[in-house]
Every structure is written in C-alpha cells, then in structure tokens.
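User: Sequence for Ribose-5-phosphate isomerase B below. Tokens please.
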Amino acid sequence: MKIAIGSDHAGFEYKGKLMSLLAYLGHEALDYGAYSEESTDYPEWIRPVAEAVARGEVDRGIVLGGSGNGEAIVANRVPGVRCTLCWNVDSARYGRQHNDSNVLSMGQRLVTWEEARAIVDAWLTTEFEGGRHLRRINQIDNPDAD
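Assistant: Structure tokens for Ribose-5-phosphate isomerase B:
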C-alpha cells in the first residue's frame, strides 16, 4: 500500500517511527512533513496528505498532531476524504469497517507508542464491510441519495 504521512511538530516523533514501521511492513510511506519538532501550523502539512488521498495518488493517509483533532478536521475538509480520529484499536477497526476510513488521525500526546502501533495495525488490516455502511457513506457526499 502507498501511504502518505504528515504531522505537525507535536506528532513528529511518531511520524518518524511510523515511517520506519510502514516500510518494515512492506508499505511505501511518503513523508509530507513536518521535518522537525519546531512549532508549525498543522494545516500546512495535513492538507497535502488529504489531497493526495483524494486525488488517488496514494491509497491512504496518516496524520498526526498533539491530539489529532485539528488534523482530522483539516483532512475532512477535503472532499473524498473520510478521516477518523482514533484513540484505541476499536475506534480504528470501526473506522475501517463502518466508515471505509482512508485517512487515520492520531494524537501523539494521547496514545502511547504501543497503542499507536496497534491502532495503525488494526486500521491497515481491517476491511470495509460495505452493505448498509456503503449507503451511509454515499449520503455523506450526496445527502439526497437514498
């Protein structure tokens, strides 16, 4: 899988670790910044990840910050992106099963590295269930759809 990954300064440590983990797992990880722990504005780094996912240049994206909240908001402003903010394995699994999440957001200040690894593993390996969930996803971009 080709995965874009971006963070602000508060998610920088996990971004580096995830780049290595994704490569070890056989994925192509593309670094969209930030490139240091120097304070920076997260939209600068997160929007390009979401846009790459929406354009189909990558299969999925991972965005990181202190809490992951702002990052998820920025990503979800891009049409075609379904970013789920995850804080445990169950939230990651449901984000894929029910929402066909194509971007994962996490907060480095809110999950341990071990939890982050488990969240990413669940998010990468869980399949979308389709069915009634597909109808609901279609309604996100087309509210008049049945």
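Strands lie at 2-7, 28-31, 60-65, 83-85, 103-107.
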